[in-house]
Amino acid sequence: MAMGVNAWDQRYGSDTYYYGTEPNEFLREHLAAIRRDGEVLCLAEGEGRNAVFLAEQGYAVVAVDQSHAGLKKTQQLAASKGVRVTTVHADLADYPIDPARWDSIVSIWCHLPRQLRAQVHRQAVDGLKHNGVFVLEAYTPAQLKYRTGGPSTADLMPTLAQLLQELDGLDFVHAMERERVVEEGKAHNGLSAVVQVVAYKRP
């Protein structure tokens, strides 16, 4: 089952960064897909490594997470890099993604129960401006056999088929399930089963 707020605060409560401070590799590889103008919304951003990376590249970034401890470390990391990230403390079950507001939405390891995930993804599609981009990497249910990171239940991990349904209204330029080695801090280490998406809002 999904971790509660207190569990995330405990995970992020140490001085070290649980998933490290380097950005997600897939996000780095597809940086050029993210529009330079407008704002980027980072979902379930945790300790801020991806949001801070985007801010370093000149993007205006809003990072949403349910953990106060994670958002505090986001601000600390941003300050250490000399950049600014706007942080919002919210549970994605309650966070309204405003329609047609965002130029880009980034979802890296945002593992939600299937019903909530579908709800958030519908809002994300509506929340993108025309030609806005959605970038996602997540573990798939096949990750359960690898045990190199991610949730402990399949309900929290999407398949590509599910994402194609949940993100209806986007045009996919990259959409695949694959194996890759993920090395991110203490928690993501080794060969992993992931799903990756880059998709644009239809004009």
Would you kindly provide a written description of the structure presented here, covering whatever features stand out?
Helices cover 27% and strands 31% of the residues. The protein is an alpha/beta fold and 203 residues long. It has a single domain (5-113, 122-201), classed as Rossmann fold, CATH 3.40.50. The longest helix has 14 residues, at 68-81. It is globular. The relative contact order is 0.17.
Features:
globular; alpha/beta; single chain; 7-stranded mixed β-sheet; about 200 residues; 6 helices; 7 strands
The helix/strand order is HHEHEHEEHEHEE
User: Structural class, from secondary structure content?
Assistant: alpha/beta
Quaternary state reads single chain
- List the strand order in the largest sheet: 3-2-1-4-5-7-6
CATH architecture: 3-Layer(aba) Sandwich
Strand percentage lies at 25-35%
Question: What is the total tally of β strands?
Answer: 7
Biggest sheet descriptor? 7 strands, mixed
The total number of structural domains is 1
Fill in the CATH topology.
Rossmann fold
**Cα gyration radius (Å):** 15 Å
pLDDT below 50 for ≥5 consecutive residues: which ranges? none
CATH superfamily: Vaccinia Virus protein VP39
State the distance separating the first and last CA atoms: 37 Å
Work out the helicity level.
25-40%
Q: What's the CATH first level? A: Alpha Beta
Sum up the overall morphology in one term.
globular
**pLDDT averaged over residues:** 95
Number of helical segments? 6
